[in-house]
Amino acid sequence: MPGPSSIQERLNGLFRPIFLIVTGAYYFAQTLVMEPLLLPKKGLTPLRYTSFATLWMKYGKSMSEEMPPQLLDMMRTVHGVVLDVGPGSGEQLHHFDPTKIEKCYGVEPAKELHPGLRKAAIRVGFGVRGEGSGREGCGEYVVISAGAEQEELIPALAKTGLLGASGASGGVFDEIVCVRVLCGVPNHAETIQGLYRLLKPGGRMVICEHVLQQYNLLARVMQIAYMLLGWSFFMGGCCLNRDTARVLRDAAGKDGWKEVKLDVLQSWAAIPYIVGHLIKQS
Length: 282
Prior knowledge:
By secondary structure, the chain is α/β, with parallel strands linked by helices. It has one domain (about 70-280): Rossmann fold (3-Layer(aba) Sandwich), CATH 3.40.50.150. Helix content is about 40%, strand content about 20%. It has ten helices and seven strands. It has helices at about 5-35, 40, 45-65, 70-75, 115-125, 150-160, 190-200, 215-230, 230-235, 245-250; strands at about 80-85, 100-105, 140-145, 175-180, 200-210, 260-265, 275-280. A seven-stranded mixed sheet has the order 3-2-1-4-5-7-6, sandwiched between helices. α7 links the parallel β4 (about 175-180) and β5 (about 200-210). The longest helix is centred in the N-terminal third of the chain and has 28 residues, at about 5-35.
């Protein structure tokens, strides 16, 4: 767990979340002003997610540019039938090799991001049903309007015909990709266990996730402060203080994983994260 290379990097790691909270608050206020009638009709939660989707369409690309090399290397090898969890508007799709993918299911609950996601899939070479045939030898990208929690995901996948008569009991995906999404899913442990069940024997989970700060005391204090200041509220439900590495390991139960390789990056920052993969027993 190497430390920051400069004082500037350390300061960014500790204080940059303030900018994101302020930006999130601005877009939430803007959404309240532009769509005030939605508040009594739909409640606060839809407004929160609408405002975050607007923020993401503006800043998602720049927020997704700095990815660790090991994640990019893994994404280039993703193959077969793939579940892409929370792809947003497709900022990471260009790291996939569509010629290695038979079919990729992009599960994204924010419908506002779907047009951008479809465009990104076509741009990198995927075929998208009804919108583009893709390049020769490339797989299809299927956009699904659902969250990763099982009560939404399983019915949505069933509608595509993917689960078949046996349901998800034997696993259907060769790869499941989670890039900065498990920090925001409801029912954290249950959702991850459900994703584990959807993985084929010998299948792989590719992971890049924010995690609980337990490596640096000052950064831990800052992480707590950001959560209290409304990080989760303004940033689409993202929870900075989840011990996702432990929950991922526990998801395999008594069988365990065949292989677990999760590295901690930016362990000195207020928002450290893990990068790596887990391979299911064959």
